[in-house]
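Q: Joint fold for the lines below.
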Amino acid sequence: MTKPIIEVKHISKRYRLGAFGTTTLREDLESFLAKIRRKETLLTPAETQKGKAIWALNDVSFTVQPGELIGIIGGNGAGKSTLLKILSRITEPTRGEAILRGRVASLLEVGTGFHPDLSGRENIFLNAAILGMSKLETKRKLDEIIAFSEVENFIDTPIKRYSSGMRVRLAFAVAAFLEPEILIVDEVLAVGDESFQRKCLGKMSDVSKHGRTILFVSHDLAAVQNLCERVIALRKGQLLIDDKPAEAIRTYLAGIPAYVSEEAETVQETGLRISSVSVSQGPETVENILTTGKPAHFRLEIEGIEARCWCELDIYHESGALVSRLSSRGVELTEAGFLTCVMDPLLLTPGRYRLAGSVLVQDQIQHHSEHLGGFTVRPGGATGNQIINWRGSGLVQLQHRWSAEEKQREEELVH
Amino acid sequence: MDNVSDTPYEVHIHPGQKWLKLDIHTLIEYRDLFFILVTKDFVVKYKQTILGPLWFFIQPLLTTVVFTFIFNRVGGLSTEGLPPMLFYLGGLTLWAYFSQNITATSNTFGLNFHIFEKVYFPRLIVPMATVVSNLLALSVQLTSLIGFVIFFKCTGAKFQPNLLGIFLAVPLLIIQTAALSLGFGLVFSSMTAKYRDLAQLVTFMLQLWMYASPIVYPASRLPDRYRWLIYVNPVAPIVESFRGCFLGITSVTIPEIVTSVILSILLLLGGMMIFQRAERNFVDTV
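A: Joint structure:
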């Protein structure tokens, strides 16, 4: 029986809040003097800070078998980065223990330690050494690394003359040829153009087929689902679920955003209710992951259906804002008990969303649920003539059209 | 390639590791990084400047000229009958190496935070590489010192270099300076990791320290009741013996040298322990 390659046992990590970490010498001296004099009146900085501790990780345990490719997901502040930092030995846990049976290389960032004055080639050696590769190993793989990076022509140019894209490609090329037993990858794939990203993801699954273990942390749920065999979701420092990707992602999305009122569900006696909602880009695509500008299908399953009822589907942004309430009033229902709402193109911008919904009969709510699931919208598609790249372009893109007119015409209109 | 799980390599991560644990094994494992960092320092220093290594030569020379003027011509401080220029250059050469090592290593955590928070490797590698790559500057300065010694000897100045000392003692003195400055650098960097304001203090302290060491004056001129200064300042016997090798005159005694060697070893070991203690959680405190 093989031993697990990673064993995480009850790991906890506490951070002090407030004046983050650094105390000045004066403050420490003061609190030290206060301790000596046993002055209880003085509230020393150290004491006030003790009260404001947060647990970034709280009793997290799991084991990983050799060769597994595990995705780690979780919102901001869920403890993903802290977990990675502990496993890559950048910081220590406050409690608990982890055992790593193999060499670890962690990519919390690509191109760590790159020096702008050094050439591409020199930086390959430097970066590889920082990541724990021996010089001999690097030399052996140098040609492959250079070829993978697609910057052959500039390999002897100082990298301060590189474009940022070239730098990233060079950096990832080094990382891709690391051969540790355990590879820890943070969201480094968020950079670089899409074709290069795909190349990197391909390389990663290649690597795992050679028996290496990979921990992959990402916000990109689609990438996690496609790539990983197992997904660990964290929330507020605790392990939420550890399961097959589809199950884990569904459970994870179901809890977004965190705040849901106490009375999440109200049911009347009629037995009429929305039993489930499935969200997809179309038949036979990944559930719960949509793309801006591409079609979106919301399929509601209704129990106890009757002809007079209709449904309302509320889409909430992760910030808690109601984006839109979609009503099926006027649509005739069939016995089948399914109701599908199609948006083509989907005008929501990238982000995470929650669904709530109600079934009504003659303006009377028969069933209302604040929690019918969630979904993620990825960037990529286009609406109109604009490509929606990332958050920050509002909650929705309205359907619109731009046009330019001659100035003369404007003047004519005025007069 | 396929039986990766059979490797005996095993890392245990748990809080509060022992104080006295020096992780030499990991240091050896990362030796390639050490050599690459040293070469990086060389290359970067050379690439960034117009005059290249010539700077290493100009700087102490100018200081020597200024010292000769102020302390010897104006202040009338004794140089024990030696050519003042040689006397100051002989004192400054090793001191420059010592103080540059401390300046460069005392803020290791602050300067390398962006790397340390992303990748693990034994942090000790960084200050060690700095101390070794500073040898480049020292070798340039040493060459110029030897050049001046030969020049003054040929023009008939009265002094007797100790050739045996130059070949046997000087390499050892350089190693001791490296160890001592690394020791101090490690202690300071562990302190600046927590109290960043101390970084300002280091430069200032080094200035005062220079005057407390027999660089602009010979140790023999210290009144007897201040002679203990040579004992408590481990750099003093080093500088004094170094100059003695090249110029033939020194008042340093064997007990003073022995004390200095012992202090250097203790400081280096102590510095390494404090440093390894500081490196484990410093990411959380910066």
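Q: Anything notable?
A: DSSP finds 14 helices and one strand in chain B. Chain B has one domain: 24-284.
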